[in-house]
């Protein structure tokens, strides 16, 4: 396994692989890897075959964090990540620094903005977030030159933004969205789970329990369930946990992400909850 820090070197490798007929699978991450990330690596390997190459990028992207968010505290442990990647059969870790990605003294000024599925939910709570996500993913696609890129379903809206960007800008890459990997008690795996100390860890299962509660409400009802009523009920349910505060819960069409006012089986839901100071997200189909 190689660690590559320079864009030119990564692009050179990608060109060499292509000349050899190798397909490239790519998993973009911000590091502090867990079993969920490793499941994406396995899916990328499956997508390109034994002769293919798998690249994992590790880069905590500053443009997707607002000034009041946890950029400086975001968990980092490259030695641990590298060991996990090596064991998982990753061919290359792309591990650039900020100056390599966004330049040196000159102010970076080119961004990618998706203006449809990025609205609402994360886009409303974190207004500059998807601009940063779309920009860094576009840059990484150009650097790694992947045939297949794998993302996790936990970030449902993010995956929708990337799919739309790929289609609109004609990137020659297949986007695969792999299932969310969960702990035994239902909590979606996330690097930010490291922040959950003491009782916060057990309380954090409220996100998955809220999804399960919403599913049961919709499936057991003989009629469509009004979204406003279920939102109010879930807010009370979630905030019964002493350290939980609901940011949002939304119900929407799984393809277009257009909000639904009347909920039936097949509607998708997503929610964000502050567990103490830690903000967690999750989603599921009803």
Q: What gap, in angstroms, lies between the N and C termini?
A: 41 Å
What are the low-pLDDT stretches, counting only 5+ consecutive residues below 50?
none
At CATH's second level, what is the architecture of the largest domain?
3-Layer(aba) Sandwich
Which shape, going by the Cα principal axes?
A: globular
Descriptive report:
This protein is 38% helix and 20% strand. The chain is an alpha/beta fold and 286 residues long. It folds into two domains: 2-178, Rossmann fold, CATH 3.40.50; 191-280, Pantoate-beta-alanine ligase, C-terminal domain (Pantoate--beta-alanine Ligase, Chain: A,domain 2). The strands form three sheets. The protein has a six-stranded parallel sheet, sandwiched between helices. A three-stranded antiparallel sheet has the order 8-10-11, with helices on one face. It has a two-stranded antiparallel sheet with strand order 7-9. Helix 3 (78-88) links the parallel strand 3 (53-58) and strand 4. 37% of the residues are buried.
Keywords:
286 residues; alpha/beta; Rossmann fold; 2 domains; six-stranded parallel β-sheet; three-stranded antiparallel β-sheet; 38% helix; 20% strand
Summarize the structure.
Helix content is 38%, strand content 20%.
